Amino acid sequence: MANAKMNGPQAPKVADEQIEYVTVNVHGQTLGLSIDRVHDVFVVSEMTTVPLASPEIVGLLNLRGRVVTAVSLRRRLGLPDLVEEGRRMAIGLEHRGESYGLLVDGVGEVLKLHAADLQPNPVHLNAGWASLSRGVHQLQDRLLIILDVDAVLAFETQKQAA
Amino acid sequence: MDDLLREFLTETNEHLDIVDVELVRFEQDPNNETILRNIFRLVHTIKGTCGFLGLPRLEALAHAAETLMGKFRDGMPVTTEAVSLILSTLDRIKEILAELERNGVEPEGVDGDLINDLERMAAQNATIDLASDQKVETIGTLAYQVLERDLLPGEVSLDELERAFREAPGPDTQTPKQHVETINDAPRKPAGSVETVDASDASASKIQTIRVNVDTLEHLMTMVSELVLTRNQLLEISRRHDDAGYKVPLQRLSHVTAELQEGVMRTRMQPIGNAWQKLPRVVRDLSAELSKKIELVMHGADTELDRQVLEVIKDPLTHMVRNSADHGIETPLERQAVGKSERGTIRLNAYHEGGTITIEIADDGRGLNFAAIRRKAVERGIASEMEVERMSEAQVAKFIFHPGFSTAKEVTSVSGRGVGMDVVKTNIELIGGTVDIRSEQGRGTTFTIKIPLTLAIVAALIVSSKDQRFAIPQVAVMELVRVTPGSEHVIERINGTPVLRLRERLLPIIPLSKVLGLENTEILDEGFVVVTQVGRQRFGILVDGVFHTEEIVVKPMSSKLRHIQLFSGNTILGDGAVVLIIDPNGLARMVGSGSEDGRFQNDDGLEKASAGSQETTTLLVFRGGGESLKAVPLSLVTRLEEIDADTIEWLGGRPLVQYRGRLMPLVASDETMEIRRDGQQALVVFSDGDTSMGLAVEEIVDIVEGKLDIELIAERSDLIGSAVVRGRATEIVNIAHYLPLVHETWARSTASRSDAAATVLLVDDSAFFRDMLTPVLKASGYKVHGAARVEEAIQILGSGAHVDVLITAIDLADRSGFELVEALRGSTRFASLPVIALAVRHDAQQIAQAHRLNVTELVAKFDRDGLLSALSELQGSLEKAA
């Protein structure tokens, strides 16, 4: 689109760069995570809650012998917890050498999108959301918010905040 | 940087470390040709490799050093200057290597200074005749050290070396390096050491070793841990499903896994000698710098421990050895003066003991100067003068672990900065270790360090609280007590704060579920108490269930959770569940937050509190009549009871209750308060021997710990004064006021001592009374010494402690207080010591005797104000006299 024209014919590759996103659903909203940050997608079985932990941290879980810190995307986005606790899905992520599982309501398909189509956050987007979002893709039937994985996992623990 | 260079750097650095050690040994033992040969060979290797890699500076330095060492071999006397020169050459080489490692190229610079010195020294002695020609007669077998790997390019000259050493004697059994010994001695040992030098018997048993990246080992360890967990999971499943088909292969898998685990653990083990390697050089340099003669003896260098642990203790060990050399060992003159040999010894000893490794660092120096430490502790305000005087030497010695504590008279470059020992302690405790000090004046000091063999796997007790499981490291667990209402062990409450009576002591109980915030509802009094000791604090963790002990693989907490002090890590249990590991230190800190020392009474806290120390005092806070809070030191309290008001009997208008088979008088804590006639009446029971008294209170509020800073109130005898406790003004109750109300005879002994503005010696055989009077006296500005018996009092006086006034009870358990005074009057030193005698009853005979013995005042035992005014009068006259 416009971007490609601006960059001229010699740079179509960059402009046309396609990025694959794993899409997830939270509270009826579709969000995308860059596929190269996603290590795996798994169903959460048993979880150990960690008393005194920050609210974002739901607990610790055993993912094939590794201890993974489970973070609730809902809580990160300031959304209420899911009432009925069905099958919980998590996205396996790495952040600063540590393993995290991001709990989501559901996992959707993988989308291949042009980087150039990413549009900035609407200015009036809630500040909490804006800080976690890198921008918005307009899909045919809905909007896809691209999550900044590092920002999602960069919340402060209670002590640091205090 | 290419691989060749990297390999060269690693290896050369190792070689240099060995040369360091060997040179120091050689200096002490100049006739040991094995050592010399080893040094020579290593330096030669370095030189050759440098030449090959095109590193002219290094080559030139190594060459010059080699030349000088060649002279040693030719019989030149080994002098300290020469060795120092070679050592500084090695240091230069290390600097260049470091630079090389950073930039990949040899740095610019000239080493003409060192090279000239080396050459001059070599030339100086060129003319010296080889007096040791006879030595050459030994047979030249060619079995010197051989490298068990492909020769590096620089090593082609081994043939040349061979020639050079042909005249040297054959290898003797003494091996050149301690940690090489370990390999030879114990072929079963893993490839923990990367050294490939085979000292003796090169042709026979060669140990094959390869270099393995530490990361590879770490990864292997992680994988094995996972395997162990998976195995545990499988075992768990097979326990539930009884399928014989699985059993046998599973058994086999289990065995193999266990062996694999052990094997991999072993690869991480390294001989402690690796951490000691730098010490000979350190000691040598220090002896030169401090002009002392110090010998370093190392035993058990082959004792192995986890490399992670090794890394942590490396620096503390070096620091402690430096300390021993600097503070411990005296100068040769001082040593001679006290009849010791000129040369001091620092002895390192390491050995296994159960699941721990013990390291001792002992010197035969002057020992700790306890007097100086005491003084310093008081100066720095860590403890009061009276406290340090009462402390045992072992307790005093512990002060050196306080931050910023150094008694060195002047700051030397070596030590005296007072940084270090606290860091040493912290580092060691960080890995679950302990440090102990033993010291004897003039005989030396021994530090004993105990550390776990490995940090990766620990035994832990699995407990549960509100359906969630936790692991508590077994080392912290002292015992388990089952508590159920109605049984022998019952959780009791002081205003909701749970405590447990355990062998006559009140053990603070921390319900795990409460600290974890797992519940807001009432805590059940049923479950298990895990009695835990952290440092000197002892407390009980109340859990709902206790399962079993399991070897767990400790995994670090996520950085997002590390701020929670309560957990030290997590692990995966056999059934696959993630479980948090509770850190007893963190628990103690969390609960004790607000007071630096934690809020729990130390194990010896009872005794301490009775001395009325200025340290924190645990107070029982209660409400009497009226609005204000009242408090009494908990150490005075025997029990807390809640009785049915119906059981209170009134005899002649005085309330009594049958208590433990006796009649116990009750007294209301406040004039405005009435003892209840119905419902429940809360009692604070005080007893001394067989005599008990119940103080009826409105309500027991809390147990708090705080510094007792009492402001005296003069006009009320039922109060010692007031103090701010937990931010609230609280009246500190004078138990002494109540006692005469109920017992005329309550006073078989009381002694008091003080010593600030004036020092008082308080003699009374009842700890209770000393407890009671000490705060009163202290609050009035006196320093107080206490003694229970006449003998003890005499001992204190005899030990040279300064005492201005003696306060003694007349009725003591062993002898009469008058006998004490009589004994004192007989000595010239104490003939005129002012004495205040405490009498229970007025008795003409006693008054007469008091006069005869020149007793300054005779005060009724419970007359607090009388005592204080007598004291202040005395002080006035003392000042006049002075």
Please render the helix and strand layout as text.
The complex is a heterodimer of chains A (162) and B (882).
Chain A: H1 2-7, H2 12-15, E1 18-26, E2 29-34, E3 38-44, E4 57-63, E5 66-72, H3 73-76, E6 88-95, E7 98-104, E8 106-114, H4 127-132, E9 133-138, E10 143-147, H5 149-153, H6 158-161
Parallel strand pairs in A: 2-10, 5-7
Antiparallel strand pairs in A: 1-2, 1-8, 3-6, 4-5, 6-7, 9-10
Chain B: H1 3-28, H2 33-53, H3 56-73, H4 80-103, H5 112-124, E1 146-147, H6 158-165, H7 178-185, E2 197-198, H8 214-240, H9 244-267, E3 269-271, H10 273-276, H11 279-290, E4 294-299, E5 304-306, H12 307-328, H13 332-337, E6 344-353, E7 356-363, H14 370-379, H15 385-390, H16 393-397, H17 421-430, E8 434-440, E9 444-452, E10 457-465, E11 468-473, E12 477-483, E13 491-494, E14 497-502, E15 505-511, H18 512-515, E16 527-534, E17 537-543, E18 545-553, E19 567-572, E20 578-582, H19 584-591, H20 605-610, E21 616-623, E22 629-633, E23 639-644, E24 649-651, E25 654-659, E26 662-668, E27 680-688, E28 691-697, E29 699-707, E30 711-712, E31 719-725, E32 728-733, H21 735-742, E33 751-755, E34 759-763, H22 767-779, E35 783-787, H23 790-798, E36 805-809, H24 817-826, E37 835-839, H25 844-852, E38 857-860, H26 864-881
Parallel strand pairs in B: 4-6, 11-20, 15-17, 22-32, 26-28, 34-36, 36-37, 37-38
Antiparallel strand pairs in B: 1-2, 3-5, 6-7, 7-9, 8-9, 10-11, 10-18, 12-16, 13-14, 14-15, 16-17, 19-20, 21-22, 21-29, 23-27, 24-25, 25-26, 27-28, 30-31, 31-32, 33-34, 33-36
Describe the structure.
The complex is a heterodimer of chains A (162) and B (882). In chain A, 18% of the residues lie in helices and 44% in strands. Chain A is of the alpha+beta class. Chain A has a single domain, classed as OB fold (Dihydrolipoamide Acetyltransferase, E2P). Mean pLDDT of chain A is 83; it is low at 1-13. In chain B, helix 2 packs antiparallel against helix 3 (56-73) and helix 4 (80-103) packs antiparallel against helix 5. The radius of gyration of chain B is 36 Å and the shape is flat. A six-stranded mixed beta sheet of chain B has the order 12-16-17-15-14-13. Chain B folds into six domains: 3-172 and 194-198, Four Helix Bundle (Hemerythrin (Met), subunit A) (Up-down Bundle); 214-267, Orthogonal Bundle (Helix Hairpins), CATH 1.10.287; 273-452, Histidine kinase-like ATPase, C-terminal domain (Heat Shock Protein 90, 2-Layer Sandwich); 457-591, CheA-289, Domain 4 (OB fold (Dihydrolipoamide Acetyltransferase, E2P)), CATH 2.40.50; 605-742, OB fold (Dihydrolipoamide Acetyltransferase, E2P) (Beta Barrel); 751-881, Rossmann fold, CATH 3.40.50.2300. The longest helix of chain B has 27 residues, at 214-240. The termini of chain B are far apart. The chains are: A alpha+beta (162), B alpha+beta (882). Chain A binds chain B through residues 46-54, 57, 59-62, 64-67, 69, 71, 96, 98, 100, 155, 157-160, and chain B through 225-226, 229-230, 468, 516-518, 555, 558-564, 566-567, 570, 572, 576-580.
